[in-house]
Design a protein that fits this description.
Blueprint lengths: L1 H14 L10 H8 L3 H13 L3 E4 L2 E4 L4 H25 L2 H15 L6 H18 L3 H14 L5 H4 L1 H19 L3 H23 L10
Antiparallel strand pairs: 1-2
Helix pairs in contact: 1-3, 2-3, 4-6, 4-7, 4-9, 4-10, 5-6, 5-9, 9-10
């Protein structure tokens, strides 16, 4: 029940159904998810460890979006993703290359107007690359960053020109991984993420920012 409540609450926070800054009340959440207050209390504790919620005295709220947090997440993610791409190009198996190829074909088959499918297929490619790196530590750290990053609007997924360039980049990345070109795989990944970072920050700047909790 704790896992179910945690996953459901995390999903609603990451998707934006529960808004940044919104107060989280145990009794209300228990009714919403059909559980007692104990699983909700434990779920909130775990979400606090995930940096998705924050406490202000006895109150618990969804953490607000902040541009400095985007920068921080991306700076760390770039380093980790470059390492994962380099390791994947070095250690990948033929099966993992096949899975990455299928993931890329799924990206190419996405309706250009379907931003949800764009984001889903993009993350699938990354997750397969993390697995191909054969580093559980890298994959675990990147998945935790992923949870926080998906709370923010993704400029690369909402701009048609950004998606067209993404397909070019991922095709080059797939080739580099397939052909064991480790340095090139890392470089393509880093450049791709820096461009996505700029688009996210640009998109973030066009949205109003809620006031911090006082």
């Amino acid at each position: 029940m704790v896992d179910s409540a945690y996953l459901a609450l995390r999903r609603d926070i990451v998707s934006g159904e529960i808004k940044p800054g919104e107060k989280l009340i145990e009794v209300v959440l228990a009714d919403r998810y059909g559980v007692s207050r104990t699983p909700i209390r434990e779920a909130l504790r775990r979400l606090e460890q995930d940096d998705l919620v924050q406490r202000d005295g006895r109150r618990v709220r969804v953490r607000l979006h902040r541009p400095d947090e985007i920068m921080d997440i991306y700076e760390i993610r770039i380093v980790l993703e470059e390492a994962a791409a380099r390791a994947a190009a070095l250690r990948r198996t033929p099966l993992e290359v096949s899975l990455l190829s299928r993931a890329f074909e799924a990206m190419r088959g996405v309706n250009p107007d379907d931003t949800v499918a764009r984001e889903r297929t993009c993350w699938t490619f990354h997750e397969l690359m993390w697995t191909a790196s054969r580093s559980k530590t890298l994959a675990d750290l990147l998945r935790r960053l992923q949870v926080n990053l998906r709370r923010y609007p993704d400029g690369a997924m909402t701009h048609p020109s950004g998606w067209r360039q993404a397909l070019v980049d991922y095709q080059r990345l797939l080739s580099a991984i397939r052909e064991h070109r480790t340095a090139e795989a890392a470089e393509i990944t880093g450049n791709r993420l820096r461009a996505a970072q700029d688009l996210r920050l640009r998109d973030y700047g066009n949205h109003e920012v809620p006031m911090p909790i006082r």
